[in-house]
TrEMBL record:
This is Maleylacetoacetate isomerase maia. Residues 99-221 form the GST C-terminal domain. GO terms for molecular function: glutathione transferase activity; maleylacetoacetate isomerase activity. One of its GO terms (biological process) is L-phenylalanine catabolic process. Belongs to the GST superfamily. Zeta family. Signal peptide: none annotated. It comes from Aspergillus sclerotiicarbonarius (strain CBS 121057 / IBT 28362). The keyword Secreted does not apply. It comes from the Eukaryota. InterPro entries: Glutathione-S-Trfase_C-like, Glutathione-S-Trfase_C_sf, Glutathione_S-Trfase, Glutathione_S-Trfase_N, GST_C, GST_Zeta, GST_Zeta_C, Thioredoxin-like_sf.
Amino acid sequence: MTETLTLHTYFRSSCSARLRIALQLKSLPYSSIPINLLKNEHHDPQNTTLNPSASVPTLIIQPPDPTQPPTIIPQSLAALEYLEETHPEAYPLLPPSTDPISRATVRTLANIIACDVQPVTNMRILKRVAPLGVDRTAWSKELVEDGFRAYEEIVAKTAGVYSVGDGITLADVCLLPAVWGAERVGVEVGEFPTIMRVRGNLEGVEAVRRAHWRNQEDTPEEFRVGFEGGGGGQ
């Protein structure tokens, strides 16, 4: 018997997409439980009991022994690190431990996305900004562009096929959903040529396409139209 993985997710959540991409790349079967952010389901007790931040994603790991309590990880970067540490042989998402500099670079890039880019596209943050009288889309766009400039400056020196060399890493797993979100706030991603090249390479990977926000069980039908992705999640 093996552990059972369950992911609380929302089709357009970039943090959820990080986990979906990693799980698909590692070929780890999981069950999805959609949490509709527009219906405020993330504030329901069923979710907040597992995720005190009232957010998604939440990764739940049930051990093979059903009498043992599950492990609950309510933050995407921690969940990604968990998957890497427990399943390192299944599509490694970090460079080998013999290359600590590259590992640090991957983590630096992942944190630029997680700390500088994603928060300013977060629905909860944007709702707080609106009463201040600023154009929240323009505010978000400018800050995302700042984060992408920092990312671009680094990957212009480290990228091969992907952000750090020729293998997909945690940096790429974080980057691609951020690109999808950036386009929704009007960022011209073409202004960042290395990011655009890496993005194109990532979207050509079948496992990544299965994790695309247009291809989830909770994706509304109107967003699926014209999308030629692979099959849905497990």
